[in-house]
Amino acid sequence: MEGDHDHQERTSHWSFKIIFKCTSTETTEDQVLVLTTPPQTILAVKEQIEAVFNVPVCSQRLEYESLVMKDADEIGLFHIRSGDTLMVTYKAKAMCDELKIVVDWMQSLYSLMERQTLHTDADDQQAYNTIMFGYQAGIMEDLAYKKFSPWVSPVTQANKLYFLQIGGLEVLMDLYSLILQQTWSELAVEKKYVEYACMIVISNLASSLQYRKMIIQRGILPMCLKSLMRVNLKKGAQVEDDSGSQGPKELNDAILHDVIGSVVSILANICEIPEMHLLVAPSPDALHQLVCVSHSPSYDVLWSHLVATVFLCLAHSPQTHKDLTAPDIMEGLLDVPILRNSKQIEHMDSVLLEYFTLMYFAQLVLVSPVLMLPHVLQNIIGRMEEFVQSTTPLQLKEYEEQRRFSWSVFFPYVRLAYIPNTPHNGELTHCAGCTIPGALLSKAQHLALEIVLYWLRNTLAREMHQELFIREGLLDYIICIPWHVPASLKDSAKALVCSISTQVITAPPRLASLAKAKLAKMHFGLDKVIRVYSVHELQS
Hints:
61% of the residues lie in helices and 6% in strands. The chain has helices at residues 2-12, 42-53, 96-115, 121-137, 139-147, 154-165, 168-179, 189-206, 209-217, 220-228, 249-270, 277-280, 284-295, 301-314, 321-324, 327-341, 347-367, 374-390, 393-402, 411-415, 438-460, 463-471, 475-479, 490-503, 511-524, 526-529, 535-539; strands at 14-22, 27-35, 61-64, 67-68, 85-90. Helix 13 (284-295) runs parallel beside helix 16. The radius of gyration is 28 Å and the shape is flat.
């Protein structure tokens, strides 16, 4: 009997001493975790830690006597006893209880709206009440702008991870998809608010590369394009809902404005993923709508920046250039900085808008000159000349930092320095099928390459980008650029290399890298060379 009593004591009063180590604040904290029943697996222990201390399961690294414990491991494997000490390493605690409320609200709303296909008055009223509760409490705005922002914060990352862990993304996308089944004019105002609310949360999630890919896998692009085209905009006009929607016109206009603006924000992030380019660019209506957003007085200059970023990313894929060089698109984008400057925007915003626009055209000039129109090319040359004379890479770095612009992909820009048909020692390589005079095209390509060097020097000067350049295996190719640019740009290319040397420990380029860089410039382009390991592979 006494042995049975001892066994009951051991199995009904489990407690652990938990040493929490937060890597983002470099602090430690001792706590005691008391369990009413003995845990069977490490996952069960982590779930209790989450419930009591708000550290999401997915964020925990659990150790016992320096052994890392996996979720599926049985606790008996480690011979742990009540009273032992566990180490939990994590970056930040999450707002677990508050995030559960948000996901529960979305799930409840989704269920109600799905039942509304039966057209029962009770379901209609209940759905309306649920939406109004979320609207008045600011549930989704709080999620997007407080729990998911600022995006670099460790707490924000912990919140996003926990949101994904409890199935928040699936519910969010299901709710958004359900709303899109109705046309804009059919939607009641409160449901239009739900569409906007879903999109601001998706926009904040899309700002992080790891979540961006998950959102894409859930089919965000066709949904975004449908929201973008809710109402056709007119170039230079205010955003107005002319679809015959029910409810106050001012409110419909305001929600439409916010929905389309949120689409642009999402596209500016997901279009950094190459797979998106050939899905967006072939849609002339979507491209025209984006240009209209950039021209509209309803949006401030931030949305012009974002539209320029979308086009800049789309131009990374040469297959899109035929669509992007449509005359109305090119001329519309060239007009945007001029229109915005007439509104007396800040100098910083004016410079950044011109910068993104010219970088977009630099890609077209270097990769697809055969598609350019002579009068457009002449306009671009004048704008590029003025830009390089009045702006420095250091200014661009400071402006991007102040406006919190960051980039996730750099290979497309380095590739532009290695296109075989760009100027070499000041001479234009023959471009088959191009009707533009050689001297004009040579000058345009020279200036475009100078803009590219500005871009690389600016981005590499930012510490947050340097690790990404290294991860993409691009540093050796950047160091080799001075060997492969026209003589008049060598000083600029050398300044780029020097700026890297002050930020990152670099060595002279390896002989193999010099050889591959030369093959890229003279014959194959960087796309092929960087993905192969031998000359034999290139020949085959």
